[in-house]
Amino acid sequence: MAADPKQVSADVSVPPSKPAFWNDPAWRAIFFQVLVLVGVVVFAAFLVRNTLHNMESRGISSGFDFLSKTAGFSIGETHFGISYTEENSYGKTFIVGLMNTIWVSMWGVFLATILGFIIGVMRLSTNWLVSKLAMVYIETIRNIPLLLQIFFWYFAILRPLPGPRGSIQLSFPIINFTHLIITVLVSAAAIFLLWWIGVKKRYDADQKAMPLWMLVIASVVTVLIIGNVVSLVTGFGLVAQWNESFFLNNRGLSYPQPIPEEGFAITGWAVAIGVVAAFFVRRWAKKRQDETGEQFPVFLASLGLIIGLPLVIFIFSGLPLHFDYPKLTGFNFTGGSVLTPEFISLLLALSFYTASFIAEIVRAGINAVSHGQTEAARAVGLRANPILRLVIIPQALRVIIPPLTSQYLNLTKNSSLAAAIAYPDIVLVFAGTTLMQTGQAVEIIAMTMAVYLTLSLLISTFMNWYNEKMALVER
Amino acid sequence: MAEQSIESSGQDLPAEGLVIGEEEVIKIVDMHKWYGQFHVLKNINLTVHKGERIVICGPSGSGKSTLIRCINRLEEHQRGQIMVEGTELTGDLKHIELIRREVGMVFQHFNLFPHLTVMENLALAPIWVKKMPRRDAEEVAMTYLKRVKIPEQAKKFPGQLSGGQQQRVAIARSLCMNPKIMLFDEPTSALDPEMIKEVLDVMIELAKTGMTMLVVTHEMGFAKTVANRVIFMDEGEIIEENEPEEFFNNAQHDRTKLFLSQILAH
User: Fold this and answer.
1) Residue B101 with chain A: CB contacts under 8 Å
2) Which residues are within 8 A (CB) of A219 and not within 5 positions of it... i.e. 6 or more apart?
3) What is the CATH number of domain A90-164+341-470?
4) Least packed by Cβ within 10 Å: which of A150, A424, B136, B164?
């Protein structure tokens, strides 16, 4: 009967035959899962039992009591305004290490993102030199081990610098603000007038316009003249005085510390108000465009609100900010602030290294948007800027964000290489010094791992949220 | 902007020696194009009158796509003149912008924006180029979606549509800018056979409205029924140019005959 295929296919009421249970995918799945589960439980039990046995035989008491004991060692640098002395507890050591890790990771992510996007876009440039420069950067930096790069900055560049007395000094002009503002405003008006009369009006009237080189020369001459006239009228120059403010030596980079005076808070509030206002302007502009079709330069307006408004308020509230300049007294500098060589080395190495990967991610993201998209957008008459903003970037971001997240995670975790040059991050001060002194290996390593896990999860959660916001539905 | 207008103003020459007839919407005179050393288009002379429907055919690599892509400056020509609607195509961004507003284009691979819905695809240019209020832009978009007979797909994304529907959306997207000339670059070549007809039907409907159309296609049936003129190109040159009847029944050149025998053989 079974040999007759017609008969079998015609008979609908016969249920499909079941395979033997060892060939049934459902059974196999359950079997292997049970096997893995048993394996994991046995291994975990072994680890716990072994650890407890070892600790008992060495007379180590477990628990977290050590956190409240006095640490007895000092830490080179602290951030986020935390103060720390030898009398503080191991718990405080943990906090300081954690904050130092967050501090360097935060700045690393910030710098790597900016540098990575710039290099990535440069890599796509049609300019041969620019593109090749970016390529050389990427291929060099990402193929040298990160630890070696940290050593390079620390041992080859920063440590061999001369001592404080032989510091490399950078002088900065102290600009006369009133002079600068008057000159900029008047010059801008004059250049606009030049352009308007020489180019725009003639161009609109279909006459031959002023050539570019002539406009550039005329503008430069105008600015020089106006600058000098302003100096004559007000009686003082653009540069009030030159001030030696940055000192680079083998103890780091000393720089002037801004100290807010009374009334500076208003400027701070202006920034906050600017951000909120920019948000509302954006909403208002979108609504107005939907209703009337009129467009509004949201980006420029936001820039004006977030930077311009506080700047104006800062100037009109009487520049309530002064700088505490570093001064060489004896063998070292007092005053100002210092970036330690450890921090600079770690930050530079982490940023440059990660930026080379981010650059490739950005390039891949932009390349992933087919050229047909640009052509179609051009064909309907869109200009370069809206094409980028409305068509290219939304599609490129979707490709860029997920791998960008892993680069942020990498950077954060790689910051643990700080231990190699003694930047006091959590691995050095807690999983290093504290562990050596207390011997509480299990608790300390577990806490340190929990820190990195938490940081990583926080970054992923934020980036996933952002990705979801940006991710484009296509079906 | 300032920089652009300065640079381009020098090239803003009057079109000497070009007499533009009132009905001539495109005039191409002695136009050449090179890709590096490769001479893609050689001595192209072509005049298109208002309402004309021109089919351009030829073997692959003959430069037919490049020719129509020169008309809205997706490709740059190196010698000769192209006048569209009385504006000469030069490096002048203002001219390019003006011409692109008048000329719509449909691509072989649709090139719809995958991250926008059908409605957003259609309304994008009216909102950002014509500065229309969103509601008006969507109204216009809906009108054209009805014209291409898929108003019910407005809320969907391009990825959810069939090839034929996507190409119809692409046609509607171009029409939303209310162009005077439509360029079609092999609009049916990427489609499954059963979807070709729905796209051609839309194009035939469009032809009936009096739209000036330049169509690069291998659909000879379409050429026979819709075109006023058929142009045959080979190796970057216009070899033959005739009314469809004459073109198909009484080709003058051997190369045209060879091409027709190959394409009409099956």
Assistant:
1) 381
2) A187, A191, A194
3) 1.10.3720.10
4) B136
